[in-house]
Write a structure and sequence with these properties.
This protein is α+β, with helices and mostly antiparallel strands. It contains 12 helices and 10 strands. It is rod-shaped, with a radius of gyration of 44 Å. The structure holds phenylalanine. Phenylalanine binds next to strand 9 and strand 10.
Length: about 350
């Protein structure tokens, strides 16, 4: 019996000594202390011994169990420590590595210009109005004094959805909607938004583009108010040193009407942008036509006003020297990133 015990002891100590992982140690634990483990069996075997042998052998087995347990536990502590160290080493973080910078986005150039223009007009006491992109024929044409046979109504210009609804071809319908809403109060609004025309895409045309409408209606508004407001606006956006020119024009919903030009950076010495004219056309404008006031219930004998409308893409292209309108819609990051 003594012989057997010392064999188990030697084997156990050697195995524990040679164990190199907690998995090794685990199987050793089962081998000796598990349900069918060597020590467990020895303990059970004690019952079969004679009353004289039992205490002697029992003591020896107990001592062996204790020794192996302690040896095992010591080794277990050592291995747990080593394994923890190895894990920390493996997961080491180099805190001095330069970080990965997230890619920063920026506003789309059109949004940026719309915001900039909006702020100029907010500064002059305007507020911002909106209207639907799917518009009724009445607001897009009829109430704007555009008669049924007017060329602007032709199917090849407009994108109709039904007989009476279309994608708005300009932001001018917001004039009527705002007057209906504010009557009989004075009006001083701008209305930025998308407009749609049945144009083929090329460097300067797109079937969808953006406009900013403006409308002022009150008692005693004159054409010189229009000139003052638009001159101030153009100088704020293009530079105080630029010249502004008002050219007679025609729109069905304004009378008289004027197109407004800003002097070209080439100062007339000749360039492609202004086609050697020295002037760049920026917007359409005019005094609100009496019929338009009447459609919105404002009495033209009491009220007067002025309106204007500009193409956002065109202004952005002139500001930044962009030669193709399609850049705005392709979302190529190399283009967009230049407007940080
Ligand atoms: N709605 C006109 C256009 O599309 C622009 C405009 C607006 C002209 C207001 C005069 C007054 O082109």
């Amino acid at each position: 019996m003594q012989e057997k015990l010392s064999q188990i002891r030697a084997k156990g100590i050697k195995e524990i000594d040679e164990a190199s992982s907690s998995a090794d140690l685990n199987s050793i634990r089962l081998e000796y202390f598990g349900k069918k483990g060597l020590i467990t069996q020895l303990m059970r075997g004690l019952g079969t011994l004679s009353p004289e042998e039992r205490p002697v052998v029992g003591k020896l087995v107990n001592e062996l169990r204790k020794e192996l347990e302690e040896t095992w536990e010591k080794k277990n502590q050592a291995i747990l420590h080593l394994e923890a160290e190895a894990k920390l080493e493996k997961e080491r973080i180099d805190v001095e590595l330069p970080g990965r910078k997230p890619r920063r986005g920026n506003q789309h150039p059109l949004s940026a210009i719309i915001q900039e223009i909006t702020e100029v007009f907010l500064g002059m006491g305007f507020s911002v109005a909106e209207g639907p992109e799917i518009e009724e024929d009445y607001y897009n044409f009829e109430a704007l004094n555009i008669p049924p046979e007017h060329p602007a109504r032709e199917m090849h210009d407009s994108l109709y959805i039904t007989d009476k609804t279309l994608l708005r071809t300009h932001t001018s319908p917001v004039q009527i909607r705002t007057m209906e809403e504010l009557y009989p109060n004075p009006v001083r609004i701008i209305a930025p938004g998308r407009v749609y025309r049945r144009d083929a895409q090329d460097a300067t045309h797109s079937p969808m583009f953006h406009q900013i409408e403006g409308l002022v209606v009150d008692v005693g508004i004159t054409f010189s108010d229009l000139k003052g407001v638009l001159t101030e606006f153009i100088k704020k956006i293009f530079g105080q040193d630029r010249k502004v020119r008002f050219r007679p024009s025609f729109f069905p919903f304004t009378e008289p009407s004027a197109e407004v030009d800003v002097s070209c950076l080439c100062q007339g010495s000749g360039c492609r942008v202004c086609k050697n004219t020295g002037w760049l056309e920026i917007l359409g404008s005019g005094s609100v036509h009496p019929n338009v006031l009447r459609y919105a219930k404002y009495d033209p004998e009491v009220y007067s006003g002025f309106a204007f409308g500009m193409g956002v893409e065109r202004i952005t292209m002139l500001r930044y020297g962009i030669s193709d309108i399609r850049h705005f819609y392709e979302n190529d990051a190399r283009f967009l990133e230049q407007f940080r």
